[in-house]
Specification:
Layout: H1 3-6, H2 21-37, E1 40-42, E2 44-46, E3 49-51, E4 56-61, E5 64-73, H3 77-94, H4 99-115, H5 117-128, H6 132-157, H7 159-162, E6 171-179, E7 182-186, H8 194-205, E8 209-213, H9 219-231, E9 239-241, H10 246-255, E10 259-265, H11 268-279, E11 290-294, E12 300-303, H12 309-321, E13 333-337, H13 338-353, H14 372-388, E14 390-393, E15 408-411, H15 418-421, E16 428-434, H16 437-445, E17 452-456, H17 460-469, E18 474-477, E19 513-521
Length: 522
């Protein structure tokens, strides 16, 4: 690709319209192709070596637990150390590669992924339990991250040209953004392609080398991405693939004195532990490690009495149940003004009961949750909800042979109820009543998190108040609170939602670089 293509304005990858028969058939063909590939074994990747280990992670289809998606080799402390040494060695040459050349690998990878979009989406269907639209959006976002960050690295490399420093007589000055070193990427199961690829390539294009530890539930999707980056010619050692135990591999690398940064997406508990462990300066460590963390949320939709109630109800349901509520941005709470509460609750309940549950490959609106541990946790919260509120829909296991849970609605909850306060990460919606719109916003803000939120109203003064007062990183007006687009809605939250690193934003790559000012007397 040429420089002129690299500098064309960024444009989001279009979502596939599966109501078009041609697109539907293309997706069905990809699903059939990938189904024939299931069950393969995948290696670790350490430098130029591909290593198969005796101990494997067996990835199963959460919608059909008898189906094995693949077997992925598991790393160990010794292999993690070997990966660190390979990453350190590769960094010495990779950091010297021109930013535009580094960006070229991302452009090529994005182009190949675009050509094979439905195949990548099919792996998401089988391994993560996503329906077609959710899988397609995940793949599109991965493409977007590569396209966006490639352009961003080029822009940052030209900062001194386009945004010159203040000049003084007799001196030339410039600022450049140089890489940090070896980064550890610990990625989640819920966006196992988009977030995994996005966090990995952000570090890579910035000139760092990476050790990638994917989620235990979705390692095959990550392995396919690593294969893609090898295919486009990314030099050995720049991206090392190290699935493994969270303590033996993950914590070892987090605490390693040569680790320069950690990019983590996952639970609050694990994020806080990483933050604590990374803060300790180890013997031989000569820097303070950076931690970029996105740790979830207890997001919500606020509805006042002037809102379009049909649109608000639809937004509540879409926010709550997209990908079975397994999104850090999921609207697991809705706070509704008293005068329209009963009407909105009825609309939400009706819409929820229309959602059907079934196999993701057959494109049911609601699929499984990711694994047995998640299933058990969500079902325990449903039991708590039955003691705290009024069950209006769902509340039970939905199907056999998979981790299926009925979309569940609880109403009449106290704002301090556990299911109003604690992240459940499943298809469970909690509804609460407020006496007025300001109290509704106060209830929304009564959380330790602060990732996404939505406010529904037709009154401009109230909207302006909400924009100023609702404390979250991503706030949407008269919309759902999920579905952030790269470059359009830079994504990251406040408080216990993480470090407010705005993924897909114009300052994100600064987190993986350090600014070097250079002055010369003339």
């Amino acid at each position: 690709m040429t420089t002129t293509i690299q500098h064309t304005p960024f444009k989001n990858e279009a979502f596939t319209d599966f109501s078009i028969e041609e697109n539907k058939q293309a997706m069905q063909a990809a699903l059939a192709k990938v189904k024939n590939e299931l069950g393969k074994k995948f290696s670790l990747v350490i430098g130029s070596e591909k290593l198969f280990t005796e101990e494997q992670t067996i990835s199963i289809n959460p919608g059909n637990v008898e189906e094995v998606v693949g077997s992925v080799s598991k790393g160990s402390k010794e292999l993690a150390e070997k990966a660190m040494q390979e990453a350190l060695k590769a960094f010495e040459s990779w950091k010297k590669v021109a930013p535009a050349e580094r960006a070229e690998y991302l452009f090529k990878a994005a182009d190949l992924m675009r050509q094979r979009k439905h195949e990548f989406s099919s792996y998401l269907v089988y391994e993560a339990g996503k329906n077609w639209a959710e899988a397609d959006a995940d793949t599109a976002e991965a493409i977007d991250f590569m396209e966006f960050y490639a352009r961003e690295m080029i822009r940052l490399s030209e900062t001194s040209i386009h945004q010159p420093l203040t000049k003084i007589e007799g001196e030339e000055t410039e600022i450049t953004y140089i890489p940090l070193g070896v980064g550890i990427v610990i990625s989640p199961f819920n966006f196992p392609l988009a977030i995994m690829a996005g966090t990995a390539v952000a570090g890579i294009v910035s000139g760092n080398t990476i050790i990638l530890k994917p989620a235990d539930s979705t390692p095959v999707v990550a392995a396919k991405f690593v294969e893609l980056m090898e295919e486009v010619g990314l030099p050995a050692g720049v991206l090392n693939f190290m699935p493994g135990d969270g303590i033996e591999v993950g914590e070892y690398l987090v605490e390693h004195p040569k680790t320069r940064f950690i990019s983590f997406t996952g639970s609050r508990a694990v994020g806080c532990r990483i933050y604590e462990r990374a803060s300790k300066v180890q013997p031989g460590q000569i820097w303070l490690k950076r931690v970029v963390a996105e740790m979830g949320g207890k997001d919500g939709v606020v509805v006042d009495e002037t809102a379009d109630l049909d649109a608000a109800a639809a937004a509540i349901v879409a926010s709550a149940y997209g990908f079975q509520g397994q999104k850090c941005s999921a609207g697991s709470r809705a706070i509704i003004v008293e005068s329209v509460y009963d009407e909105v609750v009825a609309k939400v309940t009706e819409l929820t009961k229309k959602l059907t549950v079934g196999l993701p490959e057959e494109n049911y609106p609601i699929g499984p949750v990711i694994d047995q541990k998640s299933f058990d946790k969500i079902m325990s919260y449903i039991e708590i909800g039955k003691t705290e509120g009024r069950l209006l829909a769902g509340g039970s296991k939905a199907k056999e042979n998979g981790f299926y849970i009925e979309p569940t609605v609880f109403a009449d909850l106290d704002p301090k109820a556990r299911i109003m306060q604690e992240e459940i990460f499943g298809p469970v919606l909690a509804l609460a009543k407020a006496s007025n719109w300001k109290e509704a916003i106060d209830i929304y803000n009564d959380t330790e998190y602060g990732l996404t939120g939505a406010f529904h109203s037709k009154v401009e003064d109230r909207i302006n108040y909400a924009l100023e007062t609702m404390h979250c990183g991503n706030l949407y007006i008269n919309k759902k609170c999920t579905g952030a687009l790269v470059g359009v809605h830079p994504f990251g939250g406040f408080n216990m939602s993480g470090t407010d690193s705005k993924a897909g934003g114009y300052d994100y790559l600064l987190l993986f670089t350090q600014a070097k000012m250079r002055a010369r007397k003339i």
